[in-house]
Amino acid sequence: xxxxxxxxxxxxxxxxxxxxxxxxxxxxxxxxxxxxxxxxxxxxxxxxxxxxxxxxxxxxxxxxxxxxxxxxxxxxxxxxxxxxxxxxxxxxxx
Length: 94
Fold this sequence. Notes:
Layout: E1 2-3, E2 7-11, E3 17-21, E4 36-43, E5 46-51, E6 55-60, E7 65-69, E8 84-90
Antiparallel strand pairs: 1-2, 2-3, 3-4, 5-6, 6-7, 7-8
């Protein structure tokens, strides 16, 4: 489990990721900006995760990196701006 400034993430033993809390900037990755008072499923196949102030980073079991939420200062590392309401794959530079 980890917590950002206003959202919480929970990784279950079946590698599913769940979250709740403020979702104003899409940090729950459910393709909305609806705040969630109860846990919702965000993704399957997750190995690890991190909750920032207004963004989320997810490491999947295939070692791919994904992110959602605010990207106002490049915190998703995908070179795009603004952020995303759904998980986007983050590609590493060559």
